[in-house]
Amino acid sequence: MITVYGFEVKSGDLNFDWCVVLNFHKKPGEKPIYIVDVLAHLTLESATQKLTAEIQPCSLFERGEMKVIPIQHTLIRDISAIRVYLPDDLRTKESRQSILKSVQDIIQRHPLGLPLLDPIHDMGIKSNDMISYIKQYSILQTRLDEHPLTKNLQLKKIYEQYECKANIEKQVLDAKNELKKAQSLLQIGDLKRHKRVLRRLGYCNSADVIDLKGRVACEIDTGDELVTTELLFNGVFNDLTVSQACALLSCFVFQEKANEMPKLPQELSGPLHLLQEAARRVARVSIESKIEMDEERYVDGFKPYMMDVVKAWVDGQSFASICKMTTIFEGSIVRCMRRLEELLRQMCCAAKAIGNSELEAKFTEGTQKIKRDIVFAASLYL
């Protein structure tokens, strides 16, 4: 007589209840899969089907037919310690149905459920890992049994709702991942266009290797690095005084609105015109490289409202006197001066990268002259 163990099998939403194992074999592959031949109770309609995907389970106490079907070992949920004696020949329907009666009798004798196979006592597995796993399983099962939802009559409905919520959350996560992939593709296009701008302006070569202009631009992040670098390499700052250079750089850091445009003298309007020309060139190259940009809006982004105020401050005038020169709020003036000091320090590094010591000294002097009085006081409570 052949003795086998009883199995409880669950496949998706189909619960095959307790089945009887006949044989098993290992399927070759990277991950080992065991195919188990089991005697399962199927509905009369699906028992005649040849395809495994079309079979339907039948309750052990309803009218059906016992059939041999192959299953993967991953579908096995529980293994019973009870053994079932099989007849010598299972090819006839009558012999298979006799196994069904034996299984029904076993279930009736164990109304609280069939005893499960114990890996330690029944199978003799004495490894420390298995003992640890069994202990963890026992703790988790106890916590599960003591959970208040276990005795809730609406547990099935609550579980279905939670499962629906989990599926929706997964769909949202998948949608976000798809959105990130789509955005990455868009960003690749933007990256190609910006690299085209850098090549045309001479910041990198055809192999996308950064040149001297590119290394200089990397030193600047407080203002527009492309326009400031263009001004540096065009020699605009070489002919300016310290106060003129500081006044021109204020156009990069002042971003607030002002009521009226100041009347700038020629010594300031001339450098401003050169700045606007450099900005227009950068904007045109960007537009030619398929980057969406409004040329006039880009040029207007360099605001000259603080040029005369900054020049007067660098020349040594008091904070009270420069406040009278403009309608801009005192707090805005202080913020502009502090950002300008940061930009001047970066311009020193950029001039050093070029190797122009005179220009480096000029920006250093500008930093020293602008950093004074109440504008850079640690506290206003003096």
Task: Kindly describe this structure.
Helix 6 packs across helix 8 (266-288), helix 7 (242-253) packs across helix 12 and helix 12 (330-354) packs antiparallel against helix 13. The radius of gyration is 41 Å and the shape is elongated. It is built from 13 helices and 5 strands. Mean pLDDT is 87; it is low at 1-10. It has a 5-stranded antiparallel sheet. It has helices at 44-47, 93-109, 128-146, 155-201, 212-217, 225-233, 242-253, 266-288, 295-300, 307-314, 319-323, 330-354, 357-370, and strands at residues 2-11, 14-27, 33-42, 65-72, 76-86. It has 3 domains: 5-109, Elongation Factor Tu (Ef-tu), domain 3; 128-179; 192-370, Orthogonal Bundle (Sec63 N-terminal domain-like fold), CATH 1.10.3380. It is an alpha+beta fold.
Architecture of the largest domain, according to CATH? Orthogonal Bundle
**Helical percent range?**
40-55%
Distance between the termini: 102 Å
Bin the strand percentage.
5-15%
The assigned structural class equals alpha+beta
Low-confidence stretches: 1-10
Q: How many domains comprise the coordinates?
A: 3
* H/E series: EEEHEEHHHHHHHHHHHH
What is the top-level CATH class of the largest domain? Mainly Alpha
Instruction: Tell me the total number of β-strands.
Output: 5
Strand order of the largest sheet: 4-3-2-1-5
Write the CATH fold name of the largest domain.
Sec63 N-terminal domain-like fold
The overall average pLDDT, rounded, is 87
Q: What's the shape?
A: elongated
What is the C-alpha radius of gyration, as a whole number of Å?
41 Å
The main sheet comes to:
5 strands, antiparallel
Count helical runs.
13
